[in-house]
Structures are given as C-alpha cells and as structure tokens.
Amino acid sequence: MSNFGFLQRHMSKSLFEMKDKSQDIDFVIQVLDARAINLTACNNEILKIYNKKILINIALKLDFANAISKSNDIIYISVLNKNSRQIIINWIKNKLKNKINSFKEKGLINPHFYGVVVGIPNVGKSSLIKLLSSKKKINIENRPGVTKNIQLFKINDLFSIYDTPGVLFKNAKNIEEIWRLAILGCVSKNFFNLDKIIEEALCFYFEFYSLEIRKYFGYNSPYFYESFLEFLINKYNFYKKNKEPDRIKCLNFLFNIFLNNKICKINYEKKNK
C-alpha cells in the first residue's frame, strides 16, 4: 500500500473516533503554529464535528515567530513560560464560565468538563498536553503522525482533555502552501519534490529575511538558486566519494535548518511577490 493510501485510511479512522467522542465534549482546543496561523488552522471538516462546542484557539511556537498579527480570539503561548499553564486554564474557565455556573446552580458542586485538542501534525499538540497535564513525558517527535490513538489526560479537578492523532487534515492547494507545510514539519517531505521545496523556501528567505540568511551562511553574492547550492556544497564539503557534488545531502542539510528554525524568527504568513 502506498503511503498516501495509508494516510487516507488513517484520516478516516481518526475522523470516526472524533465523531464518536464529540457528544462527550464540552470544548475544543485548536492548536496553531504562531509562525503560520492561517495555514495551520484545521480544515472545516474537523471543526464541523464540534461546531456547537466552545472553541479555544492556542498558538504555540511563539518563540520562533516574527512580527505576527495577534488576534483577540487566539491565545499566544510559549511553553517555556512558567505561567503559560495557568494562563490557558484561566482562559478555559472564562470560556466555560456560563456552563460552570449553570451546573453549580443545579446543585452540582464539582462539575467536570471534557475538551479535545485538535490540530494538524507538528503544531505542538503533545507539547500543549504535556504542559496542561503536568506529565513529565509524552511521546513527542518533530514529525507528523506520532500520536496514534485518542488519549485522555486530566488537567485538574475541573477539566480533562482528549488528544487526537496528528493526521493531516489540511489540503494544500498549491506549491506555496506545500513547501510551507513541509518546512513546518506538518507534512512529510518524502511526499513532494525536495528540490522544489528548498527552492521555494530559499526564495522566501532571500526576499523577506535576506540579511539573516546571508549572515547565517556567510553569503555575500547575488542570490541565484543553483549558485547558492554550489556555494554550500563547497563550503560544507558536500561531495561523494567519487568527488561528485552531493546535491541531495545539501538539500537535506537546508531542510533541517529550516525545519528547526535555525536562521531567525520568522512569519510564514508573508506572501512571495
């Protein structure tokens, strides 16, 4: 079976599990990447499942984001901030205030509410759950699809949250969205042309973050894609044993730098001219 066929089946299974749990859910936490809010939002197919639930948007990876336009409907969080957990809990309490008061008026002194965490792969769902549940270890990797099944985590006496598998529910419409999703780690680079991903990413960096990328690599010449790759191959000695340039090694080297946000803080909402 092809990787794509497996992905489609896994997506269908996840949607079924999410629908099955939807009747037990009081609120939905949608996790976004602060570097690309609109791009990393879930497709409507997911949100329709929970369309009558309270929606809480949380943007993570704030430490990597540059010049973002903040919205009052989104909490922008760094998991490194020791106050982040309480900020989120307070936000959930505020969003559920009417529901909490309604239960207490009915005589239920200690109500318990259930939420679900949704988001496309690698936006930080597992990191958020680790933060909220105070778990010392949750299976986290910098690649899509690590979470395989829906799991329940207790936050406190008032809230618990379900995690959902990190399956891609995002239909990229063009190469501009594809390379961004790949660089963010939301889709596997193996599904696409790596050369094209790197070419698009470099074009973006040299247009919007030229000073930063030039400083990072010590590159002072006019930018041309092939010339830049040749520069890197010589600089980092990316050659095969037969002395031929190792282009693939160079492309993977660049991909990992972009994936791990090594060059500078960035905003992937900017559009190429």
Account of the 3D structure:
The protein is of the alpha/beta class. It contains 10 helices and 6 strands, in the order αβαββααβαββααααα. Strands 3-2-1-4-6-5 form a 6-stranded mixed beta sheet, with helices on one face. β5 (151-154) and β6 form a beta hairpin. α6 (175-183) crosses α7 (194-208) and α7 (194-208) crosses α8 (210-217).
Compose a concise summary of this entry:
It is built from ten helices and six strands, in the order αβαββααβαββααααα. The protein is of the alpha/beta class.
Q: What is the radius of gyration computed over CA atoms, rounded to a whole number of angstroms? A: 21 Å
Helix and strand composition category = alpha/beta
Question: What would you call the shape?
Answer: elongated
Report the order of strands and helices.
Answer: HEHEEHHEHEEHHHHH
What's the story with the biggest beta sheet?
A: 6 strands, mixed
Number-wise, the strands total 6
Strand content: 5-15%
Uncertain residue ranges: 1-10, 137-147
Compute the separation of the termini in Å. 39 Å
Summed over residues and divided by their number, the pLDDT gives a mean of 84
Give the strand line-up of the largest sheet: 3-2-1-4-6-5
Tally of separate helices: 10
The portion of residues assigned to helices is 40-55%
